[in-house]
Each structure stands twice: as C-alpha cells, then as structure tokens.
Amino acid sequence: MADAYVQVTTSTDSRAEAAALAKSAVSERLAACAQLVGPVASTYWWEGVIEAAEEWMVVFKTTVDRFDELASLITEEHSYDTPEIIATPVVAGSMDYLAWVAEQTASPESEPEPEEA
C-alpha cells in the first residue's frame, strides 16, 4: 500500500452533532466516509470524577496525509473542550476500497480540471 490509511474516531453527546461532524469532514474531502455508531455508553474520568454518558461515535475513513486537517476540523467544530481524536492505522484492507478512500480525499489542488462540454 503506497498510501497510508487511518480510521479516526471521535464521540459526541448527540446524533445531530455527530452527523454534522461527518458531513463537514466528507464535504471538505478530509474523509471519504464517516459512519455514525450509537448510542454507546461511555464511562470516563472528567475533572476528578467518574462520569457516565450516552454518546454517538463517528468513525472517519481517511489517509494519513489528511489526518492533521481532519483533527483540526474536529477540534474546531466539536462541542467538547477535549474531544476524542484517535487515529488507528489501517494495516491491510481491500485495495479497491483503499484506492477509493485515496481518490475521495485527494486535496482539491491535486484534482484534474473539469473538462469543458
């Protein structure tokens, strides 16, 4: 695999926010796909107390080259002070699918000019 791929995960407290993050990332071609999973039950430490909450997880499919921009978008648009942003390397996968991920996340300056009719 010439390109490096990652799945990036975040979670939020509402389906609407999860959907908005997914749409922003895909619209800006920072992810080829974003899947919403939930609700999930989360238990975590926050400000010295164990908390429990219902959250929605978003799993983004992208390339390592787009990770920093995706992480910035999540940080800027997320409602949490410290949003989860975890990138898990894709060690292997369908070559056709990964080629599609690379194609869909290509930066705009690398896209060919549209042909005139």
From TrEMBL:
A GO molecular-function annotation: copper ion binding
Coiled-coil segments on the chain, per record: none
Gene3D superfamilies according to UniProt: 3.30.70.120
Superkingdom assignment: Bacteria
InterPro entries: Ion_tolerance_CutA (IPR004323), N-reg_PII-like_a/b (IPR011322), N-reg_PII/ATP_PRibTrfase_C (IPR015867)
Entry's Gene Ontology BP terms: response to metal ion
Family the UniProt entry places it in: Belongs to the CutA family.
Identification of the protein by name: Divalent-cation tolerance protein CutA
